[in-house]
Amino acid sequence: MGSISQPQGPLPPGTEACQGCGEVRLTRIRMSLPDGRAATFVSCPACEITNWFALDGDGTPLTRGEVTGTG
C-alpha cells in the first residue's frame, strides 16, 4: 500500500495529521463523492479514526450524508 499511503502533491486541509491522535503516517485515498466533488478518505493506523475531507474544503471532516449523498 505504499503508493496509496504516500501523499502525492499538497495535502488537502485536515489531512496532514490524524485529528484524534496526531499521527502523520496516514492512509489517504482520493475519490469522487456522489455529487462529483473530489475528496480524500483518511484512515489512521494508530487509533483507527477515519474521516473524509473535501479537496477544496477548510479542513472540517465531511458528514456521513455528504459522503454518501443522502444529506
Task: List its traits.
alpha+beta; three-stranded antiparallel sheet; 2 helices; 24% strand
Set out the fold topology.
Layout: H1 2-5, E1 27-32, E2 38-43, E3 50-54, H2 64-68
Antiparallel strand pairs: 1-2, 2-3
- Helical residue percent band: 10-25%
Which structural class should the secondary elements be placed in?
alpha+beta
Q: What does the average pLDDT come to? A: 88
Shape, please? globular
Amino- and carboxy-terminal Cα gap:
31 Å
Strand content: 15-25%
Q: In order across it, which strands form the biggest sheet?
A: 1-2-3
Indicate the low-confidence ranges by residue numbers.
Answer: none
Could you characterize the architecture of this molecule?
This protein has 71 residues and is of the alpha+beta class. Helices cover 13% and strands 24% of the residues. A hairpin with a 6-residue loop joins strand 2 and strand 3. The N and C termini lie far apart (31 Å).
Summarize the structure.
The chain is 13% helix and 24% strand.
